[in-house]
């Protein structure tokens, strides 16, 4: 197993199915906080559903169509980043993230997203990286801006929600834009 240090207190690690208990504990701490912003299929409520979420991402990694990594802060899983979709043939991927309230504002999500985007662009030849977010999620949109993504547009009322249909914003960065603005060297993701 690898652990990629992001700061002195934060590591990026693979989030494999055998870590379902730890993942479920993280979701239990984060559930109310992230539920409005993530797919209902992601917010597992018991051990079998937590294992199923991680297995879906493990299967995506094995089929070269996605992946998931956890953020451990002081040894505790507090969130993570993922390649929601990954299509080398089309040269397009979608990145996403989640974090529990206690880990917000600690500066760990942006470096983790940068790592997987840099890897996707430099190592795998991805040409377009997308970030899709609920139009009301101001923190997510601020992170997209900090990462250098641009707002492509809004898909109006595209997702059913508890209180009506939800607008989804699509942000993106193209490979040449990323490489022109990215700092650091190529990154390894396992």
Write the layout of secondary structure elements.
Layout: E1 4-5, E2 10-14, H1 20-34, H2 47-62, E3 67-73, E4 76-87, E5 92-99, H3 109-122, E6 128-134, H4 138-146, E7 150-161, E8 164-174, H5 175-181
Parallel strand pairs: 5-6
Antiparallel strand pairs: 1-2, 2-3, 3-4, 4-5, 6-8, 7-8
Question: How would the global form be characterised?
Answer: globular
Counted by DSSP, the helix tally is: 5
Instruction: Specify the structural class.
Output: alpha+beta
Report helical residue fraction. 25-40%
Terminal Cα separation, in Å? 9 Å
Biggest sheet character = 8 strands, mixed
Topology, number of strands: 8
Catalogue the unreliable spans: 183-190
- Indicate the mean pLDDT: 91
Fraction of residues in β-strands: 25-35%
Biggest sheet strand order reads 1-2-3-4-5-6-8-7
Radius of gyration: 16 Å
Topology as a string of helices (H) and strands (E): EEHHEEEHEHEEH
Description:
The protein has 190 residues and is an alpha+beta fold. The protein is 32% helix and 34% strand. It has helices spanning 20-34, 47-62, 109-122, 138-146, 175-181, and strands at 4-5, 10-14, 67-73, 76-87, 92-99, 128-134, 150-161, 164-174. Helix 1 packs across helix 2 (47-62). The longest helix has 16 residues, at 47-62. The radius of gyration is 16 Å and the shape is globular. The chain starts with a strand and ends in a 9-residue tail after the last helix.
């Amino acid at each position: 197993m690898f652990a990629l240090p992001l700061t002195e207190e934060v590591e990026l690690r693979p989030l494999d199915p055998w870590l379902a208990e730890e993942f479920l504990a993280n979701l239990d701490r984060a559930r109310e906080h992230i539920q409005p912003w993530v797919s209902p299929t992601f917010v597992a409520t018991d051990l079998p559903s937590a294992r199923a979420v991680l297995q879906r991402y493990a299967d995506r990694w094995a089929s070269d169509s996605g992946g998931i990594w956890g953020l451990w802060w002081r040894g505790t899983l507090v969130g993570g980043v993922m390649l929601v979709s990954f299509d080398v043939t089309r040269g397009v991927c979608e990145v996403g993230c989640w974090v529990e309230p206690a880990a917000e504002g600690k500066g760990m999500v942006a470096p983790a997203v940068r790592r997987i985007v840099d890897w996707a662009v430099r190592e795998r030849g991805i040409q377009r990286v997308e970030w899709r977010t609920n139009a009301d999620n101001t923190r997510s949109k601020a992170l997209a801006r900090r990462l250098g993504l641009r707002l492509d547009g809004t898909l109006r009322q595209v997702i059913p929600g508890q209180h009506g249909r939800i607008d989804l914003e699509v942000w993106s960065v193209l490979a040449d834009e990323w490489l022109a603005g990215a700092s650091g060297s190529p990154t390894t993701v396992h």
